[in-house]
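On clarity, I found the account of how folds are encoded harder to follow than it need be. Since the whole study asks how a given chain folds, the encoding of that fold should be made plain. The format is easy to grasp once an entry is in front of the reader. For illustration, here is how one protein appears when written out as sequence plus structure tokens.
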Amino acid sequence: MEKIIWGIIGCGNVTEVKSGPAFNKVPNSFLAAVMRRDKVKAEDYANRHQVKKWYSDAESLIQDPEINAIYIATPPDSHEAYTLAAFKAGKPVYVEKPMALNSIEAQRMQEAAVKYSCKLSVAHYRRAQPRFLEIKRIIDEQILGKISSVDMKMALAPTPGLAETWRVNPAISGGGLFHDLAPHQLDLMLYFFSEPVSIYGNSLNKSKSYHADDYVSAEIIFRNNILYKGVWDFDVSKDKEEDICEIKGENGVLRFGVFSDLCELSLNGETKSLTFEHLPHVQQPMIEQVVNYFLDKGPNPCSGTDALIVMKMMDKIVGKLQ
């Protein structure tokens, strides 16, 4: 392949700004077709984004001879099925996070990538953003010195109508908001510190507002005896909302938000804010790396193997995996 010609399965909200437009903005990449089961919405998306073809059937898009790569942006319950269908057609896949409903499905997806000799990348796109690349540099160059611990807190107030959305329907999403947001956070920990050595966690449905847990806690030990503690609370008042991660080392502390712009480094009693240019399409740096990987011009920015580790972390934390 000299150019990646994309087809999107599931042209919903995530593709409007975060990812969709980026496929036409990176070198050697072109978005040729989109698919959504609702014909009217599929055609509307194609018209608004100047995409020449649209489908209401995923298999028709997958079998389109012009398309040589598939981006799966549906809810997690269909990630495995669409990934396997693309692999059977000999086409590489870029799939949204979380990789699947659970680690069992994720394992089958990774095994299928090997079986069909197809490339698989997962959209843990924060890995490619300048802010998190800088955080990784600070860690890798030991600017903080020896790192001892990581504390992360995610607290959100319930939003109106949340109970009616697929994000808190475990049959579609795999769980609640933890399954929607924690993949980004836990993947960054894997990216920064390598594989976990031990994982402990608890979860419960505190508010009973929907059929998914809304409070999760975790303790993870990563290599080099780095202790990570995380808390996710999705039943707080608006004034108690929080998104902060603190990485503590012998020389100082690095504080940042995974979903906010907060990023500051405290060294020797002085604190400096780190600022980064706003990205109009947050997935664009990742998509550029995926395109290069699919064209054999670079490494896989987030492999199925790495994403499977994240899925296993999540499953262990909420008690789905021993």
